[in-house]
Structures are given as C-alpha cells and as structure tokens.
Amino acid sequence: MNDGDEATIAAVDADDGDASVPPIPPSTGAADGAPDPWNEDTSELILEPDHSVLPTIRTLWTWWSWTMVAVVLALTAAAVAADVLRASIVLDVVSVWPYFALVAIGAIVWFVNRASWPSRFGSAVALLALTGLLAVLALHITAWHGLPSSVESRGRPFTGGEAALTMAVPGRLELRSSSLPVSFSASLLTGGGNVAVPSADGLDTEPPDVTLAEHESPGLHRGAGWAVVINEAGRWRLTVEATDLDADLSGTMVDTSVFRGGGNVVVAAVAAGAQLRFESGTFVVSVPSDAGIGVEGVAEVPSEWTTTERGATSPEGGGDFTVIVATDATVRVIES
Q: Quick check: bond before 207 cis, omega within 30?
C-alpha cells in the first residue's frame, strides 16, 4: 500500500467515524507509577468533612446562650411587674453576689478576648449565669428559709393552752394549724402583691395574745398575702379580717372567734359554749356533722337542720357552740 492509499483510507475513516464518541485518551501514569484516572478504584475515596461551618455553629451557640440569660431576666422582671413573683427576689439575687461577680468577670474577660479565645468559653460563662438565675428562682418560689426574701414572724416557745391571735390583712390569708415549737409563725405568700410582711405585737404576753399587722416599712418584702400557722396544741381565740380567707382549723381547738372579710372556714373541735361570729363578708363554714350547733341570724344551713325563731339548729341540738351571723354577713353552713 502506497502513501496515497493510506491517505485515502484515513479520509474515509474521518468521514464515517462516530463523532459523538470521544477518543479514548492514552493511559498515562503507568510508566511513572501514578494512578490511572480511568481505572482508579473509587471505593477507596475518602470524603473529608467540611470544618468551615463549625466556628459558625459555635458562635451561634454562644449568642444563643447569652440570649437565654436575657430572656430569663426579662421574664423575671415581667413576673414581678405582674405580681406573679415578689419584688424581694432582687434581694435573693443580690445575696449570692460573689457567684454572679465571678460570672461577670468571666464574661468581661471573654468579651475583650473574644477574637482570639474559643467561642465555647463564652458559652460556658453564659450557662453558668443561666444556672445561677434558675437556681435562685427555684429557691425563691419554694420559699427556702436561707434566702433574705424568706421573712417570718414567730411567736415564743409554746406547749399548749389558751392563746389569742388577731390579724388583719388586705389580701389573701391562709390559716392553718400544725405542730410547732412556738405559738405561731407568719410569712408572706409566694405570689407578688402589695401586702406588707406581717409584724407581730404582744409576743411577750402570757398567755399569748398577739396582734399581726402589716409592717410599716417593708421595703421589697411585699406579697399577695400571708400564710399563718398556729400551734395545734392551743385553744385559740381568733380575730381574723381578710378579703380572701382560707382557714382550715380542723386540727386545733377553736374558742370564741370573730371573722370579717370573706372566704372559707373549716372547724372540727370547738370549745363548749364558744361563739363563732361572722360580722361582714361572705363565708362558707364547714362544721362537724356530729356536733350540736346553733345558728343565730340568717344563714343557709343543711336541709335536715331545724329552723328556729333565732335561726336554726343541727339535728343534735344547739348545745355545743353557736354560729352568729351579723346583718352585714352572708354565711352558708355545710357539714363535713
């Protein structure tokens, strides 16, 4: 075959060839030991993670942590303004100032060096601040006695016998009886409000004859009302005035007492011949079903009671104690 024939054959191949099939490049690297890109085993291909997003995530976590601190502070301030929490929580936060001082120093140091220090250091400082705030909140709500917001008036040591307690509160009053080493204890309820902390007068009297009134200079010690506990071993003469009374006296002996304002009163043991006087407000009075009770005045009583000229009597008669209802009071008597 001469040179002309070879040229003709090359021209024919060029015209008839499939132009869509690219030419297979010659194998390279076989001679120098490099991997052949056309025969490389892709199962050994290792994908490295992109670490470029990690600094961004850490930075976002840091700012999210500090945002949570700001949110807790804002919600606490809103709760105080809405009378959900007492303003004295400020005293509780201040009382642990060494802890928050260290947290503040750590925050300042991190902020100054934030360009060169790891962002997770800022997150750690924020979480310490958040933990401290939540701990103080929890202890404040549970009225832990170690906090300065937990202010309490207490009577003198008491083992039983006659005792008298007078109290007037322009708010809620929760009155209970329990086993105490003293005659009584009185403190603020956990909710916020404008009722000042109780102050006791007559602590040195014998037998106890104590008057509880709002403190004249309570400062931040204000709340929704009082929680008063009396010694269950006493025989109590009570004078109570409260706009929202919740008195469960079923665990102690009640002597002649006066109630004003409104709310619920539960009695179980009442001294013989005692009078429970309701002078103003609306009350629901729970009395023992096996006692002889007389009612003087207009009151709603159980259907099986007997109506009398002066009021009503229970099926057992009216010889044990008397419920006296004044004209300015509305009373409903129920049996327990």
A: yes
